[in-house]
Every structure is written in C-alpha cells, then in structure tokens.
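debug: dumping io for the single-chain case to check the tokenizer round-trip. Nothing else runs in this session.
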Amino acid sequence: MAAITITNVSKTYPGASAPSITDINLTIADGEFIVLVGPSGCGKSTLLRMVAGLEDITAGEVKIGDRVVNKVDPADRDIAMVFQNYALYPHMSVRENMAYGLKNRKTPKAEIEARVAEAARMLELGPYLDRKPRALSGGQRQRVAMGRAVVRQPAAFLFDEPLSNLDAKLRVSMRGEIRRLQKRLATTSLYVTHDQLEAMTLADRLVVLNAGRIEQVGAPLEIYHRPATTFVASFIGSPAMNLLDAEVDGNRLRIGGHVIETGRAVPAHGAVTLGIRAEDLHISATGLPFKVDFVEELGAQRLVHGSIDGQALVLSLDPKTPLQYEMCLSVISDKLHLFDTISGKRLEQAHTIPTLTPVLA
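debug: decoded output
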C-alpha cells in the first residue's frame, strides 16, 4: 500500500486548443478511498489514466509511495485497475483470469492458488472458478475483474467507472461489495464515476471536477452541506440544490417581489445566487408563494416541482404531507447558501441561531 501524490499535473492533447486537465494537486493518503466525480468530459478518466500510466503527463508529477512514476511503465507501477468493460479473457476460466497476472510475474504456483482461493472466498466466486466469462452474469464478471485486481495485492486500486454497465439494483449491491472489500484490504483507491450518488456512498473524500479543474475536495457530507461553488451545489445531491436569482438588501434577500429576513449579516450587496436544498424548505402559513407544476412520488419521498416568481424550485416532502396547487414556503435561516453571481463561488456568511425565517410580502 502507498499514498498517491499528484502535483501540478496538466494534460494537453496534440492539436487541442486548451488543456483537458489543468494544474491538478491532490494527495491520497495510504488506505484512503478517493472518488473523482464530475460530468462527462470533465477530465476524471484522463486523470485516472495518467496515474495508471495509460496517458502521458504533459506537466507535473505523479508519485506512488515515494517513487515518481511519470516515466514508469504501467506494469511496473504496482497498481491494479478495474475497467468498465471487465476486460476478461473469454477463452479462460474465472480461475485462469484471476491468476493470469500472477503467472506473468512468475509467482510460485502454490502462492497463486492461495491468493486466488482467498479472493474467490471474499468475492463469493468459489462456485464459478471453472466457468468461462460468457457463463456469468454482469455482476459476477465485475467481481471476477475485482478478484483479478485483489490477487495482485497492489499498492493502489484504480477503478474506471466499473459499475456503469450494470442495472440499477445490481449497482447498489456492487457498491456495497466494493466498499466492504476496500475497507477490509485497506488499499489506497482512486475511483472514477459520473454518478454523484455512487460517489457520495463510496468515498472517504470526494474530488469534484469540472472542465479539467478541481472545484472542491472534501468529505461527502461536507461537500453536500457546504458546496464551494454553484457548480458543486447543482451537481452534488439528488435533487440538485435549488439556485435562485436574489438581491441583497441589508440583512434581507429579495426574490422577485418577496423578501426573506436572514437574521444575519449578509457578506454581499446587490445580485447574488441563493441556494436552498429541497429538504430545507417547509410549508407554512405565510412565506414565499409557491405554485406546483408536478409531483414525483418516490415512495419514501415526494418531490414537488414548481416555481416562485417564475423561478423553478423543487421541494422535498414526506409523502403523507397534504398538497395544494398554491402554497407558502419558509426556510431555516442557517440553511441558506449564497454564491457570487459571476464567479459562482460561495460567499461566507455570519451564522446566527437557526430560526424559521419569516418571509414578508
């Protein structure tokens, strides 16, 4: 096992007008599970592949442990990678697929058998060791790919969207298997996904990427409750944070023709972007006038979609809560998030004791 240190790393493809990765700095502690998350094209897989040695580094440095690996071949980096498409040899059995890398490294036969047996036990693959990949389900094939990585006993695991080919139910169970396995082995892990729910449930720390740059690094709940930018606020969380155009007026926020008393010193003047999580809004006798457009019934949760002064808003409610076409909403003052309208960066706010914010017409 080893830490991974990424220092000032950039990547520019030949002929490209702009870098796909720009000045990335990140340290992954020994045994830590880091998830790179972001939309398609943000550079997360490119960054992973540079750590793996599958992409050249234009600038900067990658270290695995105490060794700079910029010029080290992928096979010599002491890493194991799990791919989206499983990458199993179709003519080999499960046992042979798992043992193949060890045989290439001239590992003694007895040790190969012991490692394969232990990995098969951990991943519940014992009954399938003599089957070919075509005789396995998608989830079983992914477990074989994980087993092939486990038997290597590498310094680090790299996962490139390993669950994206699985159906929704299987993705949930496989997330649990990956997390349990990583905790048991305590191996440094770097995991790529575009699925923010997957990222939230797996990570010790999230790295949110956008357009080749890091937007925020932190524990999942830290990022959820204190997003650093409007991009992070809109990407992390389901449903996404509501973002509304507002204007600061002293200790008040104006949304259209309505005013929210914040009960605190607001660190801005003029136009701001106001963020409110769907679960932090409450139905009240007076408040922001909310018009319902449609409702998503999700069983344990009800998402109510509507608008305030023409601005879209989503409200999360208990499914037993009675609804009307027009309602009034209030919000706890400490649950308001303010962002600069131009840069999108979070505006730090002075906190007060949380109170249910009255909204004046």
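debug: round-trip ok. The first helix runs from residue 44 to 52.
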